Amino acid sequence: MKLLKNTPRFGWMTLMLIATLSIATVALAEEQPADTQPAETQPAETQPADTQPDQDEAPASPPDDADTHDDQAEADADDHGPNMQALLDPTHQSWSRQAPDVFKVKFTTTKGDVVIQVTRQWAPIGADRFYNLVDNGFYDGVKFFRIIDGFMAQFGVNGNPQVSDVWREQPIKDDPNTLSNARGRITFAMSGKDSRTSQLFISYADNSFLDNQGFSPFGEVIEGMDVIDNLYADYGEGAPRGRGPDQGRIQQEGNPYLNADFPKLDSIITARVMD
Question: 102 - beta bridge partners?
């Protein structure tokens, strides 16, 4: 008590203020989460499992088997690489080109060659985007990451995360649906109105139930549908519904993730507009 009586009033109030501030600081620190960065949400093109092509996130389940890619096919591919200047710059003049009325694209894949014929009239906006993506080398090295037997084969996330990041933010407007999602037809994946970017799927069967949901085919496989039929499919649906690749990790980590954890996935070695 003597100490309290002899303590100067100003000094005692200062001590009380310091103690109060210290307690408040501790409380704030305890309430603040350790990581305040918001989790990155993955973009559009998400649809229900086994009924629509999507870009859902999925935890990986690494297989033990070795890579089965066709090394000779890769060696035989031409040396015309991707146009990185254009792929990293969506304002590049090459993206404004209109596709021919009818054109063919050849996929050289790890299972063989596939030829797709595009009819621009079917879906002009989608046809133009596909034409320019192919011509700038976007699909070189891209994996067929979601294969659902009896439904479709999906692909179109670039193996380079820098490129993928650019095109996730470049959606195009919808095309009116003019024909059905029949076997062999190629269509952009989507998640809602005006959400198409770069992901595609090729139908294995009659998927006409997709027609009234805005999925507008712009081309069809005219050679090599047997190649599409034989793409590696055992990983199946992506997680959390299956054991296939996590689409969030594909976007963030690219092909190194798929090569390490899903080595049996087939891929497009090169995609070229045919003369």
Answer: 119
pLDDT exceeds cutoff 90 at 266: yes
Model pLDDT for residues 183-212, shown as the tens digit of each residue: 999 999 998 999 999 999 999 999 999 999
The pLDDT tens digits of the residues spanning 94-124 come to 999 999 999 999 999 999 999 999 999 999 9
Q: Coil, strand, or helix at residue 75?
A: helix
pLDDT at 47 over 70: no
pTM beyond 0.85, yes or no: no
Give how far the C-alpha of residue 179 lies from the chain's centroid of Cα atoms, to the nearest Å: 25
Structural domain count of the chain: 2
Q: Return the structure tokens found at 213.
A: 């949901």
Instruction: Report which DSSP code applies to 95.
Output: G
104 in the same domain as 171: yes
Q: Are residues 6 and 111 in the same domain?
A: no
Asked if the model's pLDDT at residue 50 lies above 60, the reply is no
**Site of tokens 């046809």:** 127
**Same structural domain, 78 and 203:** yes
pLDDT tens per residue, range 52-71 = 565 533 222 333 343 444 44
CATH number at residue 138: 2.40.100.10
- Report the candidate in 261, 259, 272 with the shortest Cα–Cα distance to residue 69: 259
Identify whether 47 is part of a domain: no
Q: Which amino acid belongs to residue 18? A: I
Q: Where in the sequence is the domain holding 12, given as residue range(s)?
A: 2-31
Q: Is 214 part of a structural domain of the chain?
A: yes
**17 and 75, same domain (yes or no):** no
Q: What share of the chain is helix, strand, coil (3-state, %, to 5)?
A: 35, 20, 50
- Rounded Cα–Cα distance for residues 145 and 238 (Å): 9
| H or E segment to which residue 261 belongs | helix 255-261
